[in-house]
Design a protein that fits this description.
mainly alpha
Length: 42
Amino acid sequence: PEVEVPRARRGNSTLAELSAGLQNVQQAVQQIANRFGDQGQP
């Protein structure tokens, strides 16, 4: 599933907002990987 990014509304997102969004995506990926028992995560 795609994650909605409010990129269209504000074209100039701060680096902090982008970093926070990236962390949320990484956490979601880790949860999915853990659910499937993927041991390839560093």
